[in-house]
Design a protein that fits this description.
Radius of gyration: 18 Å
Number of strands: 14
Low-confidence stretches: 37-41
CATH topology of the largest domain: Fructose-1,6-Bisphosphatase, Chain A, domain 1
Strand order of the largest sheet: 3-4-5-6-7-8-9
Number of domains: 2
Helix content: 25-40%
CATH architecture of the largest domain: 2-Layer Sandwich
Number of helices: 7
CATH class of the largest domain: Alpha Beta
Distance between the termini: 49 Å
Shape: globular
Largest sheet: 7 strands, mixed
Mean pLDDT: 91
Strand content: 25-35%
Length: 266
């Protein structure tokens, strides 16, 4: 399997499909919003984008199944290849006219992410990586920031919109990082946060209550750009484990602050 060729084809598909998302934004109406759960919204744009992506990805790799946010396609027990898709990561931003959202596509083989593409539609920036091949932004190589300390770092995060049980622990993390870094940013699209960490715009990113389609592609891009990605327990269960820390040389400092506050009772 030629991962470089597959990743290139996926990047082309993401750009083509992104045109539909961009055009739909100009005439989007909040009347089309549906609710899947508390503050968990979806629109016809998410659904139509996912249908187009599934059709295109099936042509690229017919033997692969699908793990997609809106449930298009399926994954059977005997399939060792799966596309993990978020048609519009940053749906809430999209619906409110905030220009930070992306298409995120990853390919998983035997439970390992081997290819990833994040297309940030508004800036026409296509981030991509395949395992062992490095990371790229619009086909030019990228690397994580060279910062070695929190004091030199800008950190991205996300705010929970449901499951507020550990809110106090999260707030304690924010308090520490506010005082020890250049600042915190919340863009509202985890795939974009990870892509920006991969190219050095952010030094690190962390969030919980994540879904696999939020992070599958971006986590590989960070790793291939020379970064570190772990879950909140220091392990590798960050794609399906619902929590993730990503960073560059200052990773150990960031991890220490998060893990210590996350495991303390508040």
């Amino acid at each position: 399997m030629n991962l470089q060729n597959i990743t290139s084809q996926v990047a082309v598909l993401a750009r083509q499909t992104g045109e539909f998302v961009r055009e739909a934004a100009a005439k989007f109406s909040t009347d089309s919003i549906e609710y899947k759960g508390l503050n968990d919204m979806v629109s016809y744009v998410d659904k139509e984008t996912e249908i187009r992506l599934v059709e295109g990805l099936h042509k690229i790799l017919p033997e692969a199944g699908f793990i997609a946010e809106e449930g298009t396609g399926k994954l059977t027990e005997n399939q060792n290849l799966a596309w993990i898709i978020d048609p519009v990561d940053g749906t809430t931003n999209y619906m409110h006219g905030i220009p930070v959202f992306a298409i995120s596509i990853a390919l998983m083989q035997d439970n390992v992410i081997v290819s990833g593409v994040v297309y940030e539609i508004n800036r026409d920036e296509c981030f991509s990586a395949w395992r062992g091949g490095g990371a790229f932004l619009n086909e030019k190589p990228i690397k994580v920031s060279s910062a070695q300390y929190l004091k030199d770092s800008l950190i991205a995060t996300g705010f929970p919109y449901y499951d507020f049980e550990l809110m106090n622990n999260y707030i304690n993390i924010l308090k520490e990082l506010m005082q020890q870094t250049h600042g915190l940013r919340r863009l509202g699209a985890a795939a974009v946060d990870l892509a920006y960490t991969a190219c050095g715009r952010f030094e690190g990113f962390f969030e919980y209550n994540l879904k696999p389609w939020d992070v599958a592609a971006g986590s590989l891009i960070v790793q291939e750009a020379g970064g570190i990605v772990k879950d909140f327990k220091g392990g590798d269960d960050f794609v399906f484990g619902r929590e993730l820390i990503a960073g560059c040389g200052m990773f150990s400092e960031l991890e220490e602050v998060i893990v210590r506050n996350w495991t303390n009772k508040s």
